[in-house]
């Protein structure tokens, strides 16, 4: 059975993280993704670590794609984009707002050639509004979406989320927008333009905080690992590290108190009778719980939590996460062969299915690896391809696809 997006053509004009994440997943779903890069290449091709001159980070993010290297500022380069867009189902870009219009490859330009095109734009703050021409990175969006002020420990400096949260949020938001638009196209025969931003996509994930602010005027502040509405729901220090506990509901609280820490007197302590009271008295509760948990290693408490049916687990370093038997069993560390790096690891597929849904089909491309192949498929003759190469309009690695 074919993958769901097999035969769907995607022209990927994106760079760095948010856009490439989106197009990687489209490729995992079976789409033919042509990554159109500048003659210098995607910025992340220069990221360390480099193995045999290729960025390992780039290779993890850009599997299931073809690469074509083009000078977009040249008239011939623009013509290449127009030809590729005319035969594509989806075009995705994350230039600074206004750049695609200046280059002549905006949605209004391309839909004249391909009226059913789905065209997606990503930006720092959106295509309109007072910041509509402003560029942005993940760190800027984390700061402006309020995330940094609610991350970290009380009284500390604002803290960045450990991953590129707003970048990935933007990639995921664009992804479901594209899939929704594609379903609409299949049903109604029309393409459309859609756009989102790092700021909006990240802000849209602050569900509880939004509700609390408009429900009671509460400003979310940093709470360390604690939950703002539930307790105990955090990481506690153990003898050799930290252990997470999610025992906020009355049934789970009773099981935690009686079977895990074995302190039944806490059940009648007026400070801890109900979840809102436990949240209010979280400092005292943390002190009492940690005084017990520090007496044994994390593994001891995880076993007791599991036996009692209380959600809990270890707080891992990243290497421990990747080595965990559950992560290994679920194939979240996947082996693949790269033409230059050689045997390498890539992130596995987080979606599991009993049918054909996603698949890691090929490694990330070399810069311009498929330039000649893609141009020929778009209708360029061998002599035209040679001319474009000689004039420096395109670049090719010369590698076989």
Automatic annotation (TrEMBL):
Organism: Ramlibacter ginsenosidimutans
Domain of life from the UniProt record: Bacteria
Entry-linked Pfam families: CoA_transf_3 (PF02515)
GO function term, MF aspect, one: CoA-transferase activity
Entry keyword annotation includes Transferase: yes
Keywords: Transferase
UniProt cross-references to InterPro entries, sorted A to Z: CoA-transferase_III_domain (IPR050483), CoA-Trfase_fam_III (IPR003673), CoA-Trfase_III_dom3_sf (IPR044855), CoA-Trfase_III_dom_1_sf (IPR023606)
Name this protein carries in UniProt: CoA transferase
């Amino acid at each position: 059975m074919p993958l769901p997006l097999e035969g769907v053509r995607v022209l990927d004009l994106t760079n760095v993280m948010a856009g490439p994440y989106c197009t990687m997943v489209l490729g995992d779903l079976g789409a033919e993704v042509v990554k159109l890069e500048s003659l210098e290449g995607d910025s992340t091709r220069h990221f360390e670590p480099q193995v045999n001159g290729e960025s390992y980070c780039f290779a993890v993010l850009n599997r299931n794609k073809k690469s074509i290297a083009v000078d977009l500022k040249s008239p011939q380069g623009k013509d290449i984009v127009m030809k590729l867009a005319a035969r594509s189902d989806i075009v995705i870009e994350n230039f600074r707002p206004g750049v695609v219009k200046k280059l002549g490859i905006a949605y209004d330009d391309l839909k004249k050639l391909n009226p059913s095109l789905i065209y997606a734009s990503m930006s720092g703050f959106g295509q309109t509004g007072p910041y509509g021409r402003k560029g942005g990175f993940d760190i800027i969006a984390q700061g402006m979406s309020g995330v940094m002020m609610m991350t970290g420990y009380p009284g500390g400096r604002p803290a960045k989320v450990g991953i590129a949260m707003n970048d990935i949020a933007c990639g995921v938001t664009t992804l479901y927008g594209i899939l929704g638009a594609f379903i609409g196209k299949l049903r109604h025969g029309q393409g459309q333009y859609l756009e989102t931003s790092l700021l909006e996509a990240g802000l849209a994930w602050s569900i509880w905080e939004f509700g609390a602010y408009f429900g009671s005027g509460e400003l979310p502040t940093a709470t360390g690992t604690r939950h703002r509405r539930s307790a105990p729901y955090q990481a506690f220090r153990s003898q050799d590290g930290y252990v997470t506990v999610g025992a906020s509901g009355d049934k789970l609280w009773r099981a935690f108190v009686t079977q895990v820490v074995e302190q039944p007197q806490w059940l009648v302590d007026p400070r801890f009778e109900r979840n809102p009271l436990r949240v209010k008295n979280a400092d005292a509760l943390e002190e009492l719980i940690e005084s017990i948990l520090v007496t044994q290693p994390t593994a001891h408490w995880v076993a007791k939590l599991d036996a009692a049916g209380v959600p809990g687990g270890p707080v891992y370093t990243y290497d421990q996460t990747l080595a965990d038997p559950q992560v290994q069993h679920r194939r979240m560390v996947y082996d693949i062969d790269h033409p230059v790096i050689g045997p390498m690891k890539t992130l596995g597929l987080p979606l599991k299915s009993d049918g054909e849904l996603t698949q890691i089909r090929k490694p990330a491309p070399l810069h311009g690896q498929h330039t000649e192949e893609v141009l020929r498929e778009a209708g360029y003759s061998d002599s035209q391809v040679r001319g474009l190469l000689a004039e420096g309009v395109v670049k090719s690695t010369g590698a076989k696809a």
